[in-house]
Design brief:
alpha/beta, Rossmann fold
């Protein structure tokens, strides 16, 4: 199957003032997006912390020499429960976007703290060509796209994760979603959607 891909982020990022943590406050750092990893790495050290990452995409953003102690795959609710078992009685810091839904920290309660390291802003200067399939990777990308465009009638709509799927429903577009965050699963889901 020959695919012509147009890939474009419909969001921009702005770093926010951020206080680097120390390992007397937290045993763990949990990163839920590649951008959170990159922004943290610009100012702070990973040394002395156990490190958790949501999905392979986030894991790939870490520096090569940094070791992952936990990688969560699948639905966010499942990842939160799996990490809760690993966390035990320790504390964890989530450096994340000001726009984050904070679903994992909410499950962890008082053991988790959130510090905003960046803010997500919607782009307005873009044009996405008509496509047979639209694959949205975040609620913010959905908001940005629908503020300016609509999908081609009859096209397939895909969402990365439950929160993106819910955002698409707000605009009246049901979507399919890959089984997990692995690129292989995403590609298989795309191929299946284009067959329909």
């Amino acid at each position: 199957m020959d695919l012509k891909v147009h890939a474009e982020s419909l969001i921009e990022f702005e770093a926010l003032p951020f206080t680097c943590p120390n390992n007397t406050e937290f045993s763990w750092l949990f990163f839920t997006s590649p951008k959170a990893v990159r922004v943290y790495d610009e100012h702070c050290s990973f040394k002395g912390f156990k490190l958790a990452f949501l999905g392979e995409g986030t894991l790939r953003a870490k520096p090569e020499e940094v070791h992952a102690d936990f990688v969560g795959e699948g639905e966010v609710a499942e990842v939160a429960e799996a990490f809760k078992n690993v966390l035990g009685h320790e504390k964890v810091l989530f450096p994340c976007s000001k726009n984050s839904l904070q679903r994992i920290p909410k499950v962890l309660g008082h053991q988790a703290e959130v510090r905003f390291s960046y803010e997500t802003k919607l782009k307005s200067n873009f044009f996405i060509p008509e496509s047979d399939l639209y694959f949205f990777t975040s609620p913010s990308n959905v908001q940005s796209f629908f503020a300016k465009q609509k999908p081609k009638p009859g096209s397939a709509i895909m969402a990365m994760g439950e929160s993106t799927q819910k955002e698409l429903l707000k605009f009246g577009f049901p979507s399919i979603t890959p089984n997990n965050y692995l690129p292989e699963s995403q590609l298989e889901a795309i191929k299946e959607a284009l067959k329909r």
